[in-house]
Amino acid sequence: MDIEVGGIYPTDADKMGVAIAEARKGGAEGGIPIGAALFDEEGRLLGSGHNLRVQEGDASMHGETSAFRNAGRQRSYRKVTLATSLSPCWYCSGLIRQFGIGRVLVGDDQNFMGGQDWVAEHGADVHVMNVPELIDLMADFIDNNAALWNEDIGED
User: Fold this and answer.
1) Of 4, 29, 41, 64, which one is the catalytic site residue?
2) What is this structure's pTM?
3) For the chain, N or C: smaller number of CB within 10 Å?
């Protein structure tokens, strides 16, 4: 999939497709295959990104934060949709809550359950899609990279 900032992605599946493409890109770079993207209320892509913890040696560069940074400053996030390939960890859930992102699409909450319920309790409209492709992608990554995965989620 060609990702075009400013392009229109009208359906939830289209939006998740951008997150999937970013996740695959991160995995191909030797990183953790988690991707995310932010869209305005018309479905226009504001920015996308993927987990860059390994590539940049930066523990703060989760998929959601990468997409958030790439989207640039927004006047308000209430009508913004965040598509993320994996349930957002507590760090990224805090970002969602802090900036009041109004809608969250979760591609996989089978391999990892972050703070999505907490985000929903505080007003975000959360839709869990559990895309088989993403569930398989993360399961394979976790099986083959247990130490790196545990580092990413803060486990010893």
Assistant:
1) 64
2) 0.96
3) C
Q: What are 29's two structure tokens? A: 């770079």
Distances (CA, A) of 114 to 57, 88, 90, 154: 22, 5, 6, 12
Q: For residue 17, what pLDDT is reported?
A: 98
Q: Is 22 a catalytic residue?
A: no
Q: What is the pLDDT of residues 13-28, one digit of tens each?
A: 999 999 999 999 999 9
Report in angstroms the alpha-carbon separations of 76 from 33, 65, 80, 81: 28, 16, 8, 12
Residue for token digits 């523990």? 59
**Is pLDDT at 37 greater than 90 in this prediction?**
yes
